[in-house]
Write a structure and sequence with these properties.
about 725 residues, alpha+beta, Rossmann fold, eight-stranded mixed β-sheet, four-stranded antiparallel β-sheet, 12 helices, Peptidase_S9_cat
Length: about 725
């Protein structure tokens, strides 16, 4: 009897194991959970992290909400537990130096506030209750204070006695024509608004119209935000508060400037932060950043640590012993990326500044004790710096030895490390890979053996996934271009399939198996029976500075050569139906989509998303306008023929490929006007074109934004292509 029972269990298990895997569906987007914000405890025995999820909106059917909550793990597989829950998200969690408490940010009445939670039990209690929303808490080394950031509007700055003690205007000019100083911002409340009165009364009337939102008056350069125009500026200041209930925060910074990137010195007497270099230049015009020392006593003492004209310093990270400073530095303008800098640190001064040779763009510098294997070696200090960098289709973890300046790659290009922390010989990281979009892992200083700690996305194991195959191409500049080909998820060698060329934006973005934002879109299209090919053409990030600069004054022809070489090679596969090729891309790749269909007729349909199509007018239509002087020149200083020759709109009359154009209604990064112009022009010429506008959506729609609109966007890609290369279209062609 027992033998029959065991046989039955074995047969049942085999049947379950043999069950076919399911498609990746469009609504699987809502099931993806993202791990981030990792912080190892001071003793290295535990870690906290943030988990971002998409949840159904309980009050609105078919709508969703983004939630973020904090989890604690004892670094054992599957032992993670939620520390926070409920309708309000919790984020930016950090350990106290003694490892007994955490501080984090939670929204209260629309404003971010800092909460403190003891890990011995009990509820979190609210530390701050400020007028302004706060963020980025950072414990002092003795655990008695927390530094944080708060954002103020221009109007709030003018009346705040802590950050603007004299309640004066900025030293730099507000650039209002006809006024030699900023005195106009001081209005006399005794003057009554009167449209028919004196000049002073008329000015009071006009000021009231602005207050009542009947008018927006612009005098600043960067007036375009992400979703709306912004006549007034915002400023970020630093504060410190004692970790006691009812404590009053103390302002550490003052004036009409912003500060970010704070890092405590080990003695607790001061912090390092990043701000504008020239205090007399309008912040919209100042591109140089400096690293400054700020006294933690609230005296307002400030001293420049690293400052140089034409340079942008950021991300100061102090070594645990306070003797070394790591930072990032780059030219302030042009097509560049940052380098790692190292310096000896003595309180509020630096010496022996050196740059590390590393031809990628580093991120997330993090000091730790050096790995045990390195200790005692000649020229090796007791510390190491860990960081990530986009490279060759992934985002590996790297380790830098400050003494030898040697960089070691710890993880491979097939995965992307999206968050990490390190303590001694322990590394906890979150990564994305083809097999799983985001999970938490424990490893050591070598990162060779990794133990999976979380199972937030284990549902993916029940989906049929497509594995990308990497190939390379040598372009006309002699550069090696990486590209990947993905077969349809349910591949049958006896069938033919449509092929989708999907392109990235930026233009300095980079795609690959370790890039997280496209995981769902690639797998969804493969599940729908499409092959997918994507490439990193010249101008992409992740391949060094020369490669990244290879599309200066050449946004169209050169990158087109690279992506078309990839799709041409993919089309040689026996399973590809070459008569059913389609193309899409967003932002710069929306530009490239329109450019390609204006020069090449191989594609049966195209979908251009949130693109730029006329470089001669882009300067005024989006907040990404600096791309024009960085890659070309200002229109009045440039050869007009170069801008025209690189504008897809110049070739609009050549577009005969059926084209779907999409733009977010509130997208001010690229601006929707150019997409309207493309649509209208093609419509006038009677070409097959459709235009989709997403109400309320910004430029980030493919990554964030309203979840229902994100689903809509992906479905529209699929549905539009099906009209021309799907089964119904194929059946009509064969009749």
């Amino acid at each position: 009897m027992r033998a029959k029972f065991l046989l039955l269990i074995a047969i049942t298990a085999q049947a379950v194991y043999a069950q076919p895997k399911a498609k990746v569906t469009v609504t699987d987007l809502t099931r993806i959970k993202q791990v981030g914000g990792i912080e190892l405890a001071p003793d290295g025995q535990r870690a906290i992290y943030a988990l971002a999820t998409i949840e159904p909106n309980p009050d609105q059917k078919e709508e969703y909400e983004y939630k973020t909550h904090i989890y604690l793990t004892g670094l054992k597989p599957g032992d993670g537990k939620a520390l926070t829950r409920g309708p309000e998200s919790a984020r930016q969690a950090v350990w106290s130096p003694d490892g007994q408490r955490i501080a984090f940010v939670r929204t209260v009445k629309g404003k971010g506030q800092i909460f403190v939670m003891s890990l011995d039990g009990g509820e979190a209690w609210q530390l701050t209750n400020g007028t302004y929303g706060v963020s980025s808490p950072s414990w002092s080394p003795d655990g008695k204070r927390i530094a944080f950031s708060a954002g103020l509007t221009m109007a709030q700055m003018l009346t705040d006695s802590l950050v603007n003690p004299g309640k004066m205007g900025p030293l730099w000019s507000l650039e209002k024509p006809g006024f030699s100083s900023n005195n106009f911002i001081k209005s006399d409340k005794k003057i009554k608004p009167n449209p028919d009165g004196s000049l002073a009364e008329v000015r009071a009337y006009l000021e009231k119209d602005v207050e009542d939102k009947k008018a927006k008056v612009f005098n600043r350069l960067n007036f375009q935000g992400e979703s709306t125009t912004e006549p007034d500026m915002n400023f970020t200041h630093l504060y410190v508060v004692d970790v006691k209930e009812g404590a009053t925060p103390k302002a550490l910074t003052r004036g009409f400037y912003s500060y970010q990137g704070t890092n405590w010195l080990p003695n607790g007497e001061g912090l390092l932060a990043v701000t504008d270099r020239d205090s007399l230049k309008h912040p919209d015009r100042e591109q140089d950043n400096i690293i400054v020392y700020i006294s933690a006593d609230g005296s307002g003492t400030r001293k420049a640590i690293l400052s140089e004209a034409g340079k942008s310093y950021r991300a100061p990270e102090v070594s645990p012993d306070g003797k070394q400073l790591a930072f990032l530095v780059s030219p302030s303008e042009g097509v560049n990326f940052a380098q790692i800098g190292l310096a000896d640190l003595n309180g509020s001064s630096v010496s022996k500044i050196e740059l590390v040779t590393f031809d990628r763009a580093p991120n997330g510098l993090n000091w730790s004790t050096a790995p045990a294997a390195a200790k005692g070696k000649k020229g090796t200090t007791g510390y190491a710096i860990y960081f990530t960098a986009s490279a060759n289709g992934g985002s590996p973890l790297y380790r830098l030895d400050p003494a030898t300046r040697q960089v070691t790659q710890l993880t491979d290009f097939t995965a992307g490390v999206t968050s990490f922390d390190v303590n001694g010989n322990r590394v906890v990281l979150a990564k994305t890979e083809v097999a799983n979009p985001s999970e938490l892992y424990l490893t050591d200083a070598t990162a060779k053996a990794q133990t999976k700690l979380s199972n937030h996305n284990d549902w993916v194991a029940q989906r049929q996934l497509s594995q990308p195959e990497k190939r390379t191409y040598k372009n006309s500049l002699g550069q090696t271009v990486d590209y990947w080909i993905m077969k349809p998820a349910f591949f049958d060698a006896n069938k033919k399939y449509p092929l989708l060329l999907n392109m990235h934006g930026g233009p300095t973005a980079m795609w690959g198996p370790g890039e997280s934002s496209m995981w769902h879109e690639f797998q969804y299209m493969c599940s729908q029976g499409y092959g997918v090919v994507y490439a990193n053409p010249r101008g992409s990030g992740g391949y060094g500075l020369n490669f990244q600069r290879a599309n200066i004054k050449d946004w169209g022809t050169g990158p087109t050569e690279d992506v078309l070489a990839a799709v041409t090679d993919a089309a040689k596969e026996n399973w590809v139906d070459t008569s059913r090729q389609v193309i899409t891309g967003g932002s710069y790749a929306g530009y490239l989509t329109a450019w390609i269909v204006g020069h090449d007729n191989r594609f049966k349909a195209a979908f251009a998303q949130r693109g730029v199509y006329d470089l001669t007018t882009f300067l005024g239509e989006g907040n990404a306008w600096r791309l024009i002087p960085n890659y070309f020149a200002y229109p009045w200083a440039a050869d007009a023929k170069v801008l025209d020759a690189n504008s897809p709109y110049t070739f609009v009359q050549n577009i005969r490929t059926p084209l779907l154009i999409k733009h977010g209604e509130n997208d001010l990064r690229t601006g929707p006007i150019q997409s309207e112009m493309m649509y209208k022009s093609l419509k006038i010429m009677g070409r097959p074109v459709e235009y989709v506008r997403m109400p309320g959506a910004t430029h980030e729609l493919s990554r964030t934004g309203n979840v229902r609109q994100r689903i809509d966007r992906l479905l529209r890609i699929y549905e539009f292509f099906e009209r021309y290369v799907g089964a119904e279209a194929q059946a009509l062609t064969q009749k």
